[in-house]
Amino acid sequence: MTVGSPPPATGDGRGAPDASAARVARMARARQAMAERGIEVLLCSLGADLPWLTGYEAMPLERPTVLVLPVDDVATLVVPRLEAPRVREDPELFDLRAWSEGEDAVQVVAGLVGRRARLAVSDRCWASLLLGLQAALPSATWCTTSSVLGGLRAVKDEAEIAVLAAAAAAADRVAEALLAGDIPLLGRSEAEVAADISARLVAEGHARVDFAIVASGPNSASPHHEPGGRRIGAGEVVVCDFGGTLRLGDELGYCSDTTRTVVTGEPPEGLAELYETLERAQAAAVAAVAPGVACEEIDRTGRRIIAEAGYGEYFIHRIGHGIGVEVHEDPYIVEGNSSPIEAGNAFSVEPGIYLPGRFGARIEDIVVARAGGVLALNRTDHSLHVVEA
Ligand code: ZN
Ligand code: ZN
Ligand code: ZN
Predict the structure, then answer these.
(1) DSSP conformation letters of 257-286
(2) Considering the entire predicted model, what is its pTM?
(3) 139-170 pLDDT per residue, tens
(4) Distance from residue 224's CA to the centre of ligand 1 (Å)
(5) 328 CA distance to ligand 1 centroid (A)?
(6) Domains and CATH numbers, the chain
(7) Each residue of 237-256: pLDDT tens digit?
(8) How would you label 370-389 residue by residue, b for 16+ Cβ within 10 Å and e otherwise?
């Protein structure tokens, strides 16, 4: 079932008071989740937790940036002095502590942690920083921030869904061009087509391109193929899986991620049957989405159809992943994840069938679980398009 249409875009740029209020509320929910799990300090370095909480994204360089968020005290953002001018200060959220060259950032963080011992650290944190912190805080116990924040980040509010919808619509305009044959394929290399798709993602409003997979002929059987010099011939399958990060106003960027499979002329033998199965599996898995349904049940729904058609061993990945400020985040739609879908979860539904040495196909849409069903953010046609250009 599909309900409603994407909410209108909101967020009007710098210092939007609703964005600041949303972050204050997020930090309060983070502290509550910490208290429930007995976590005394959250240490957010690289990755998306920091921007999700504060709006600030650390540069992925070797100098440490760490938000030290104690459950019982004010948060402090520890940043290299030369990057302090990038920080938009928000005294309601955190104090700023810039550290200078020659100073030991690990000791600064350890001092703010103090005697607190139950710590959560970013999933994406340089090993060099974590090993330093472990040496400086020998009695601490550690877990990942995703175990505290993953479930919170997975439930999107209306403003976040509006940005995800805008990102999906921008990616759809590129997919539309692909299906219409406006992106030339024949005789071009995968890398050239990937560059074309990337340029279009930016032209359609993305602030940056996160990936553009173009996999042709036998390469289409490799789900995460790196586009290379292979030239696309006639009668070949081409799987295009692409996405980027889109911002509305000055707020946080959210990701797009969609896949369409096309064929250049006469389809190779066996493709039509395979694709028909794939289309049914993807539609059934989307239709299975509703709050309360176990994540793994959505995977099983698609997988059952593919297995019954005899392709079970050729569907070699989970059916989907959550999406938000990161392209892969909670909830993971995979066997073994029995947690229920919640209203506000945004994730991909992307079954694929891959015949090694021959060809493969995948269909991917981002969907949002809503109180009465599911809203698909990607809307381009699913049927197999023959592109002769
Ligand atoms: Zn993937
Ligand atoms: Zn994808
Ligand atoms: Zn995906």
Answers:
(1) -EEEEEESSSPPTTHHHHHHHHHHHHHHHH
(2) 0.91
(3) 999 999 999 999 999 999 999 999 999 999 99
(4) 6
(5) 9
(6) 19-152 (3.40.350.10), 155-386 (3.90.230.10)
(7) 999 999 999 999 777 899 99
(8) beebbbebbebebebeebee
